[in-house]
Amino acid sequence: MISLIFNQIIKLSATTSIIKSHIQEMEKLVSSWCKNKPLPESYIFPPETRPGNLVVPTCNTIPVIDLNKAEGQNRTHIVQQILKAGQEYGFFQVVNHGVPENLMNESMDVFKEFFEMPWEDKAMLYSEDPKNSCRLSTSSVNYAREKIHHWRDNLRHPCHPLQDCIKHWPQKPVRYREVVATYTIEAKKLGLRILELVSEGLGLESRYFGDKLSESEILSINHYPPCPDPSLTLGVAKHCDPNLLTLLHQGDVSGLQVFNNGEWIGVEPLHNAFVVNIGNQLQIISNNKLKSVEHRVVTNSRVARTSAGFFIGPSEDSIIEPEKSLVDDAPFYRAFEFKDFLLHYFPNLEDNEVVMGHFKSQA
Ligand code: OGA
Ligand code: NI
Predict the structure, then answer these.
(1) Fewer Cβ within 10 Å of end Cβ, the chain: N or C?
(2) Would the CB of 149 count as within 6 Å of ligand 1?
(3) pLDDT tens digit string along 182-193?
(4) What distance in Å separates the CA atoms of residue 363 and residue 361, rounded to the nearest whole number?
(5) pTM to 2 decimals?
(6) What is the mean pLDDT of the segment spanning 114-132?
(7) Are strands 91-95 and 64-66 parallel, antiparallel or unpaired?
(8) Domains annotated on the chain, with CATH
(9) Distance 348 CA to ligand 1 centre (A)
(10) What is the annotated signal peptide range for this record (predicted)?
C-alpha cells in the first residue's frame, strides 16, 4: 500500500515537473505576456526590415479568380488568369471555390477559440522541437537562434494520413478535430483542383501534381495578438513558402503583404476567399514559369489576427527537378530530394536567394 502511494507521488511529481517546464517555456508565447506591455527590444527589427510606414497600397492588384467559371466554357480563360497571376505576383485569391462558407467560418472560430483557451489547456502542446507532430510554438522555427523574434504564436500539425495524424491534434476545443478534419479534406480537394488548372496551363497532364508531389499536408495556424508598436516589428518576416502550393484563410483582418515591383502590397481580406500562393517547389518544377514570391505579415494595434495556412507539398523522399517539357534551353535547377530542400530552407528562411541559389543548376 505504502509503495503504491509512493509510486503515485513519484508519478504525480514527474507530471507536475513536466507541466512546470511547459509553463516556463510557454511564457515565451507572445499571447502569454504581451498584455499592456511595451514592445520588448528583442522584437524590434532593424530599420531596413521593419515595416515603418504602415500605409501600403492594398489596391486590388492581386487578382481575384472566380473558380465557378472554371467548370464552363470560360475554363481556358481561368487557367490563363491563374498562370498570369502565378507569374506576375506568385499570389492570387480564389472565390466561389467550393469550400462551404459555414465550414470556413466554423474553422476560423475554432482556431480563434484554441488560442483563447487558458494556458492549462494548451500547455501539453507547447514544444520547441520542430519534429513534434503537433506543436504550439512562437516566433519562427529558429526561436533559440534568431536575433529578433516575430510577433506571433503558432500551432501546426500534419493532416495526412488523417487517421494517424488526428490523434495528435488538440483535444480542445472539443469540436476541433471534427471541424478541422472536414476543413483539411475540403482544402486538399480545392488545392488539387487548383493544381489541375495549373497543370493545364503549363501543358502537363491534369494529374501531374496529384500524387507524391502533393502528398504532404500541413496546417499552420497563426495568432498575432494586438501589438503595441506595429511599425517596429513583424508578425512573420519576409519569406517564401518551401512547399508546392499554399491556401491561406486569412479571416477578416489585414496583415499579409506581398513584395511586388520593389514595394510591399497588402492583400485585402475578402470574406470567404482563399489566398493562394506558389511555393518554392512549384517554381522549380515549372522551371521559373511560376514564381514563389516573398511575403511577410505586419501586425496591428487594434485587434488580434488569426490566419491558417494549408501547406500542400511533396513527400520528403520526392525527387524534385524542373519538368523536362518546360525546359527551353537549360534547366534553372538541379534535381534534389525534397527533404534536402527543407534542411537547407529552415536555417536560411529569410533569404530566398540563398535558399534557391543552393539548388540552381551549375550549367
Ligand atoms: C505563413 C504565412 C501569412 C499570414 O505562415 O507562411 O505567410 O497571413 N502566413 O499569416
Ligand atoms: Ni508564408
Answers:
(1) N
(2) no
(3) 999 999 999 999
(4) 6
(5) 0.93
(6) 90
(7) parallel
(8) 1-362 (2.60.120.330)
(9) 17
(10) none
Residue 220 half-sphere exposure, CB side, CA atoms within 13 Å? 23
Q: How far is CA 32 from CA 51, 109, 122, 230, in A?
A: 24, 20, 11, 18
Mutate to test the pocket of ligand 1, among 151, 236, 280 (most ligand atoms within 8 A of CB): 236
Mean pLDDT score, 287-298: 97
Percent of the chain with pLDDT over 70: 92
Q: Where does the pLDDT of residue 199 fall: very low under 50, low under 70, confident under 90, or very high at 90 and above?
A: very high
Q: Which three cell numbers stand for residue 157?
A: 500539425
pLDDT in tens, 77-89: 999 999 999 999 9
Distance CA 228, CA 305 (A): 14
Q: 74 by DSSP, 3-state: which?
A: coil
222: pLDDT strictly greater than 90:
yes
Strand partners, 311: 218, 246
* Helices marked H in the chain: 2-26, 30-33, 75-88, 101-116, 119-122, 162-165, 176-202, 280-285, 338-345, 352-357
Where are any strands of DSSP class E within 225-352?
Answer: 236-239, 245-249, 256-260, 263-266, 274-278, 295-297, 305-313, 319-320, 336-337
Q: Cell 497543370 belongs to which residue?
A: 199
Q: How many residues does the chain have?
A: 363
CB of 173 sitting under 6 A from ligand 1 = no
86 lines ligand 1 (CB under 6 A): no
Q: Answer yes or no: is pLDDT of 59 > 80.
A: no
Question: Can you read off the three cell numbers belonging to residue 238?
Answer: 519576409
